[in-house]
Amino acid sequence: MSSTPRAARTASPSRPTGRRLRRALGRRSTVERREPLARPVDRARSRAWLVAGLALVVGLAGVVTAAVLGHRAGGRAAEAERARLHRTEALVLGRLRTEDRGAGRWSVGYQRRTDTPVSWTAPDGVPRTGTVEAPRSAVTGSTLVLWLDSDGRPTDPPATLAGLAVGAVCGGLAGSAALAALIGGVLTLRLRVLDRRSDRAWERAWAHWEPRWSGRTSLPQDD
């Protein structure tokens, strides 16, 4: 009676990722079998790096999620504000002299915008005049875009999508930097504690084995 020979079972390929993960998690049997010289402090150091990496990944995911949600909320708020405000064109009536009170927010020579008298038509059809902040390049007779509230008074323009995107990116970068600094600081403190623990262990081991290794234990002891 003949039996069909079975194919030889091939050895499974090594999995360095899983091995590193088990080593970082401190599997004592795996570490002792593959790295007999590994010490508990070495496993603690690996766990510290692993926890820091996981915390950084989870934290960055949270920062990105918060930035995206904040951008969407800001976009909805900007759309609501844009629907509430009125956009019109104002006529530049002239230029205030630099020595006039309130002629500009910055010192002369550095200011890019200055308070300028303009006229516009309110949503109720009533013409109005007033002073708004306009670019220094605005000349008499030119027009500029003006945003009005429900009462017909000039107000700040609503946020743009580009401005919201830039704000979200800057906020995300700032949050990521702060998170990385925090995790890096905690990891540094933990590694310093482990380094001091390792140094004390080496000192105890040296004090125990150095006399035997150097042969000083066989020397007579002085009274």
Task: Write up this protein.
The chain has 223 residues and is α+β, with helices and mostly antiparallel strands. It folds into two domains: 18-75 and 164-184 and 198-217, no CATH class; 86-157. 52% of the residues lie in helices and 14% in strands. The chain is built from four helices and four strands. Strands 3-2-1-4 form a four-stranded antiparallel sheet. A hairpin with a 5-residue loop joins strand 2 (113-121) and strand 3 (127-135). Helix 3 packs antiparallel against helix 4. The protein is rod-shaped and about 105 Å long.
Short description:
The protein has helices at 16-24, 28-34, 40-84, 161-214, and strands at 86-92, 113-121, 127-135, 143-148. With 223 residues, it is of the alpha+beta class. The longest helix has 54 residues, at 161-214.
- Major sheet: 4 strands, antiparallel
Q: Strand content of the residues, in percent?
A: 5-15%
Distance between the termini: 86 Å
Poorly predicted ranges? 10-14, 28-32, 99-110
Secondary-structure-based class equals: alpha+beta
Q: What spatial order of strands do you see in the largest sheet?
A: 3-2-1-4
Overall, the morphology is rod-shaped
Order of helix and strand elements from N to C terminus? HHHEEEEH
Number of strands: 4
Could you report the average pLDDT, rounded to the nearest whole number? 77
Please compute the radius of gyration using only Cα atoms: 36 Å
Relative helix content: 40-55%
Q: In total, how many domains does the architecture comprise?
A: 2
Number of helices in the DSSP assignment: 4
